[in-house]
Specification:
112 residues; mainly alpha; 5 helices; 76% helix
Length: 112
């Protein structure tokens, strides 16, 4: 299961980086946002995405022990979205011992 998740989140990371770079080369995000803001589907998609980022942050905020780590991941999630989510999962999976994924659902150990 661990390898499957690593594969999936690597694909997500590569896909998001590819599409984000291509979009950035085509048009400035603020220009596009200004043009799209009148569209209610754009607004709905934005609220949906950021609600998902906030939900994932609740899990990351619970899992991380350090206030600095929590704040850093919050900023990364709100600015990079699914790029940050995929990166967090890949880092979390790398830190797990063995092939299981149970450690994803436990808090990080407190530092001594």
């Amino acid at each position: 299961m661990k390898r499957l998740l690593q594969f999936i989140f690597t694909l997500v990371l590569l896909a998001m980086l590819t599409v984000t770079i291509r979009a950035s080369l085509g048009e400035n995000v603020f220009t596009a946002g200004g043009r799209l803001w009148a569209d209610w589907w754009f607004k709905a998609t934005l609220v949906d995405a950021y609600s998902g980022f906030a939900a994932v942050f609740v899990w990351i905020g619970w899992r991380e022990r350090s206030g600095l780590a929590r704040a850093t991941w919050f900023v990364l999630l709100m600015t990079l979205g699914n790029i940050a989510i995929a990166a967090y999962f890949l880092l979390a999976l790398k830190d797990l011992e063995g092939p299981g994924i149970d450690g994803l659902f436990t808090r990080k150990a407190a530092r001594a």
